[in-house]
Structures are given as structure tokens and as C-alpha cells.
Amino acid sequence: MPASSGPFAIGLAAAVLAGTLYVGARPAGPLPPLGALLDPAHGIWRSAASDPDPAGSIHVPGLTGRVDVRFDDRGVPHIFATTEDDAYRALGYVVARDRLFQLDVQTRAAEGRLTELVGPAALQLDQSPRILGMPRAAERKLAALDPASPTKRALDAYTDGVNAYVDALKPADYPVEYKLLNARPARWAPINSIHLLNRMSWVLASGAPERALARAAALVGSKAAESIFPQHTPIQEPIQPMPGWTAPRDQFASIAPPGAPDHDMVAVAELYARFGDADAQPVQHAFASNNWAVAPKRTKGAYALLAGDPHLDLTLPSIWYEAHIVVPGKLDVYGVTIPGAPGIIIGFNRDLAWTFTNTGADVMDFYRETVDDSVRPTRYRVDGVWRPIEQRVERYTDQHGRTIHVDTVRYTHRGPMQQLQGEWVSTRWTALEPSDELRAFLDASRARNVREFEDAMARSFFVPAQNMLVADRKGAIAIRSTGHYPIRPDNGDGRVIRDGSTSASDWRGFAPVQNYPQSFNPEQGYLASANQEPQAPEAQREYLGSDTDYDVWRALRINELLRADSAVTPDDMRRWQTDPGSARADRFVPYFLAAARAQEARGRGSDTLTTAAKLLGEWDRRYTKTNERAVLFEAAMRELTSRTWDELQRDGRRVATPTDAVMAELLTQPKSPWWDDRRTRDVVEDRDDILSASLVAAYDDVVHEYGPPESGGWRWDGIRFANIHHLLRIPAFSALKIPVAGGRGTLSPSSGDGGHGPSWRMVVELGPEVHGWGTYPGGQSGNPVSPHYTDRLDTWKNGELDSLRFPRTPAQLRVTSTTLTLEPK
Amino acid sequence: MAERDSALRALGTFAVLSVVIGLTTAWVGWWSVAIVAFAYGILAGAWSRAAWPGAVAALAAMFAWADLLALTDVRGGDVGAAAARVGAVMHIPAGVLFLATLVFSALLAGPATVLGAGVGRKLRRVD
To answer: What is the pTM of this model?
Structure first.
């Protein structure tokens, strides 16, 4: 600027300064205020500082004694407290320190309050949990807790810890996401933990097989629909071992041909349209977890071994947070917690280890209600008597507190109502009923043997039903599919929509524990669950769910591996977690090849078919990263599914898809009318026609997309990826396009958009000292710039595990990166 | 000699200004840059015959903010990673984000100094 500044220069300087101050202080469109953002000491650059910890002691309200927190080199906090309440206070503090934004945004998602953070764009996301009655259920669960109960104390203590961190936080130290959103963290409340546990129920226990059945019946008739969506999966490898079974069993029945639409079911199918098209995929991806345990008589070290890898949506930061909690004489437990939950969810203590897979139980039912007003009902009728409908106003506000939408959610005694196609339908769902799952985890963490663990879970854990696998140092192994299974009237089938005008439609209660699928120290010396049907049909005393909820292929594979090895080591357990073998490919590839040969013999072959069959025949049926044939098989399976189930389309889109187990059953019926391709009116295709056509079409598709087979474009690691998205799906904060082994039906399946997978992998040896190994895709820190944000990613993608440090005292922890001392205030 | 003294004074002014801007940014926040620069401008206009005080202030602000970023790195942080990640969120290269940060400080300091200098000159005439 010239030394002698005239009016023009002064005016220009004033304008530039005013403009700079304006954009510095106020949001500019989608951008937050630039001044606060770019400030090198307080803005986004502050996130670049190494994980900030205040020097000296940290004073936490409510603490009764000093808590020593040692972070090891993997960023895992080892919490040494003198009381359990203090331990949970400390846990709340360190989780807030590392995952504050995650705590906030996941609670908001569970409660339906994302619009308060990101504005109207999140309205539909917020409406879902509220319309399902989840916030109301959380309030009731909290209100039902005894103030002196361990659960309430743990919730309150955890809240103290989180808020101690939040209250001391300076704006400069807000997580970077808040700075980008121009927002601030909210204080924590005890109910938030319940919201998060409810959300897990939503993810894992909101399946409703009646939807697929109704949609199919509306197109092909009820008899055909019940054939292709059977209650029991036709390939049986149940969790609960069956006496005399040494191999899986095909329990195939004749599949009824497609018939005329069942017009009664058309209306029912329309009712479910509001619930989305959850049946586009044969197996809901939420059901893709594994666990298995091996008794000492079948392990090389003569100690029980346990492995678990729950599969969930992969996010950064991870849904899991590792922690170790010690209260001398009372608690010494290591494992993963869900940020927001005061307790270890999956892990081990000095005596036993445990892990879960989802049971996929059918715990959600629908009732057609008779109401007094079709538009704004205030009463509903049961057994001829009018009852009042409870109404709850759900208000949605934006970041500035302005109301953007209002819903009125109505409730019968069964649950929330929705108006669907002019009818009012209520939902009864175990996730909305009183329960205290957190108490189960608190008690289980102190269990000393398998029986105590199972009793703790059976007392308090109701939803989502889980196949709970446990092994102890005495060598016992056990599994029990624990949760509330509704006892329904009539034949007990949960796949029908019931008449709400009679109380005879209501649940009669819940199945007793002795009827749960379970096994204790089986003769075979191992147990495994991979979301398959928990019991063989002949052993079931309750209706648990249906074929659409189960996946059989991973169960077949892990049982095959376990049967073949009677000297299992921890490293075997680790390797199997990423085993690339596929029972699905083993089942279907021979059929494709046989069909190609048959077509040739019938004179219906082609050069393309010959080439495709040759290529497929070369495959070893393992989904390794370097394999170049899985892509052809997957394309062929997609074509096969599309061509076979063409009767299940409406408006050009398939509305229900039977499982591959049902497809395998149909393969044994080569002349079934299901094989006929409706597009070819003059030709009636059979099984081999469709298999061959699928293979040819697959070959053409794959060449078109990836080039000729010799081009190298068919390599699996160039096609199949894991995609781990940041919670806000910000690409720069995500880890995308990670090549992975595995595919549909392998023990580490990878399908769809790659956003779902093994969220935690753990192997535990229950020897004289319990030893654990584990990892998850991400890191302990939620700060995208922290060295602990994605430091475990390489370990995870390579199928490796870290040795988990399990010290009894602080002094035993040899590798400490940071120490926090929490003191009473 | 006079030129050398003048150069040393200018350098000294630059250094002091840079330190003050850095400290006030760290203690108070980004907007303090404008206040410090305005005050410097008054002093420059009233007592100094320095040429281009606005430019001096702008450069000093850029230098101060660059130092703060360097300090974060030296203390074990990873400014480069932060720039890459946040820059990607904003759809700009990391280098552009750095530059934008420094230029922002200059846009606060330079014009504020010019305005201050105008006030300072008026004070000098009054005197």
C-alpha cells in the first residue's frame, strides 16, 4: 500500500478488511466461518496437533477415588479404578476424548435428531427411528430402571465421565467435524446409551420375513411363495449340533410352481411398501458374523479356543472401541465397547471369553387395526371395546432450533402405528419392550465360567437375539441363542399380518430359556455360528424366524474346516477368519459346468459357452485377491438369480429374492416351471438352459466391463474392495477401495458396496493365562489426522491380528504411550 | 550507514510485529490480527516514515501464522496430513489451503494497517 494513502486506497482497504472480517465471522453458504476455520491456533489446524491431553491430573465430578489410565502403543486405555462406578466414569471420559463426534452423531442418528446438527437434509433419516417408536421406548426403558441398579449407576457414571471431558473442552479442541459443521458438542445424557443400544436392535432385529412372503404371494400365489420363502432353510447345518449328524443335510422339498397372484396378499404387500425394498438381496448383510469355539480335546495346546468376528457397517471411526477395565477383586475385563455404552460388549476376562453373532430372529409383527377415524384416529377397537390411542408429537428442528417438520406418532398397546395404503397398522417389536441389556453385559463381564455367563445373559438380555458363544479356562464351550422369542397364537408363525381387532392375535408371552437353541460341551468338540438357522426343524420348539433371515454358506465352510482339524491352534483360528473358500461356489459351479456339457450334448452349445465353462472350470473356488475367475462366477450367479426369479418382478424390479439355499434346492428340480424365462414366449426353458444362458451372459458382461480374461482385468483385487466410510461420508476422511479377499458366502464376505464387513476380529486362548488377539479396521482415535485414526488398517486387510495386552496392574503394562490420572473433583 | 540502520529497524519492526500477531492469535484468536495491525498502522502513520506499512504488516501476519503452523508440526502434529485431508473435504489441494490460510491473515493485517496509518497521519498533523 502506498505510504501516502489517498481516499481511494483508504476506501479500498476498508472494503477489503470489512469483507475479510465478514467471511471470517459468518458462514458463507456451505462453508463455516473462515476465520475460525483457518485460525492456525484454534481452527482446523489444531486438529493436526498430536492427541491433546492436559498435563497433570484431570478432575472428574463424581469420582470417589483416583483412576489411573494407561494408554498402550495401540491407543487402548487400560483403566485401573477402585470402584466400578469410577471405572465407568473413566471409560466415559476416554471415549469422549477419542470419539466425541462419533458419540454425538450416532446418538442423534439413533434418536432421530440429526437435523439439529446438519439441517433438513437429514429429515428422512430422523423420521425412521421416531416413527418406529424408538425414542419413546428409550425413555420408558430409562424410567423403568431402579435408581440404585447397577445399570443406572453405570449410565450415570459414564455420563459424568463424558461430560467432564465436554465441559472442559475449548472450542479450539473441538473435533474437526464440528469445525466444518460450525457446530458444538452436546453434553451427554444417560438416555443416550439406551438410544445407541436400541439402534443396534434396529440394525440387527428389524427383519420381517412376512414382507418377502407377502410380496411373492401377491405375484405368484401363496403356495409358491411359501415354497420359495420357507420357514426352514433347505440346507441344514444348525448351530445346535444334532445327534448323529456328521455333515450338513439337504432337506429338499418339491418347490411349488408359480401360480396365480393371491389377491388378498396384494393389499398386504402394499402395506409393506412403506418399509422399503429390504428384500432386494437374498441375505441381509447385517447377518454376516461368525464365531466358533473349540474344546481342549481338539486343540493343539489342549486349551479351549474362541474366535469371533461380528460383521457390521464399516465406518471411520469404527463402531468399536477397545478398552480394558480393572477394579481389583471385582472386575478385570478386556474387549470392545460401543462408544456410548458403559461396558464391554465382546471380549474376555481372566476366566472366559465370549462373542456373538446375530440370530436373525423374527421379533417384529404387524397388526391391522380397526380405528374410529381413518385420517386422524383417536381410538382403536379390541374385542369390541374402544381403547384410546396414545399420541406423541415428534418435532424436528434445524441447527438454529427452528421447527422444520412435525409428525404425530400414534400408539396402540402393541406399539407404533403407521397408515399404509389407507389402513392403520401397528407394530409390535421386542426392541420397544422393557429390557436391560446393559445389565447383562455388566454381569457377564464378571462371570467366572460358562454357566454364570449364560445365566447373566438369560436374565437380562432380550433383544436383539444373539448366538452367544462362550468358552472358559476349565475347557467348557457353549452357545445359546439368547433373546426374547415371542410365543404367537395359532400355529405360532410370525410371517402373517394379524387382525388387531382381537386380543387373540396378541403374543402369549416369550419362550422359556430352556427352549432357546443351545449346546454345552458337545461331543463333536466344537461349536460354530454364522447366522445359520439355530436349530434343525425337528428340534425347534418355538418359531424362531424363517429362511430369509439365515445364511448357510459360511456355516457350511467353518464346520467343514472344524471337522477336518482336530489339533487347532490360535493361528488356525485367525486364518479361518479370512478363509477364501466358498461352500456356495462348491455347490453351484458343478451345476454350471454340467449344464454347459449338457447343452453341448444337446447341440445347443456355443463358442462362448465353451470358453466360459472352461474358464469357470479352471477356478479353485477360492476368493483370493489374485484369483481371476470369481468375477465370472458372481456375474453368472447374478444372471441366474435374475432369470430364475423373473416372476418376482413388479414394474421391472424384483421385489423379493429367495435365498441361494432355495436356489440350490431348485437346482435338483431341472424341469421346474420356475426355470422358464417369461421373455421367451415360444420356448420353455429348463434348468440347464438357464444355467448356460446365465453363464454366457455373464461372460459377455465381464468381458465388456473388465476386458478379455487374459487382460489382467479380472483380478479380484481390482474388482472387490472394502470401503470404510467416515460417519459423515466425507471421502477425505474415509478409507476407500481397499482390496480384499472374500466374496459372497465366504467367511469374510465382501459384497455390495463393500461398506459392510468384519468390524472386529478376535481370537482368544483360554489357557492358564488368557491370551487374546484382535483388530478392527481403523484406529482408536476419531481424529482424522491422528496417527491412531487408521493405524490398524493394514493389519486388518492382511488378515493379521495384534496381540492384546492384558496387564493385571499398571506396572505390568510395558508399553505405555500416555498416562491420564483422573482425580475426584 | 543510515540505510543499514533503516534496514535493521525495518527488520526489527517486522519481527516484533510478527511475534505479537502470533501471540495474540494464539491467545485471543484470528480477529486479533486486525486489531494488532490497526494499532501498528496508527504508530506507523504517526511516528514512522516507513514506506508500505500495510505490506510489512501483511507479510508479518503471514510469517506469524506460518510459524504457528510450523510449531504444531514441530510438536508432533501433522500439518501436512491435516491440509491434505481437510483440503480434500473442501475440494482444494493441500497447498492451496496453506496459501489460503496465509493470505487470509494478510487480508486482515494489510488493510487494517492502512486504515490505522490513515488515523496515525491525522494525529501527526494535529500534533
So the answer is: 0.91
